[in-house]
Specification:
Blueprint lengths: L31 H27 L2
C-alpha cells in the first residue's frame, strides 16, 4: 500500500499577540428628541381614540 503524501498548507499569521489601543470611548447617545417624538405620538394616538369613541356615540 502506497503512502499518502500530505500537502502542507500555510496558515495565516495570527494577531493574538498584538493588542489594540486601549482608548475607550463611552457611548452616550442623546435621546431627548426621541422622547419628545414618542410623547407626541402617544398624545396624538390617545386623542384619536377619544375622537373615535365620541364619534361612535354620535353616529349610533
Amino acid at each position: 500500500m502506497a503512502k499518502k503524501s500530505r500537502t502542507s498548507t500555510k496558515s495565516a499569521p495570527t494577531f493574538a499577540g498584538i493588542q489594540r489601543g486601549s482608548t475607550t470611548t463611552e457611548f452616550n447617545p442623546d435621546y431627548t428628541a426621541v422622547k419628545t417624538d414618542l410623547k407626541r405620538i402617544g398624545i396624538l394616538a390617545g386623542s384619536f381614540f377619544v375622537v373615535l369613541i365620541v364619534l361612535s356615540f354620535f353616529l349610533r
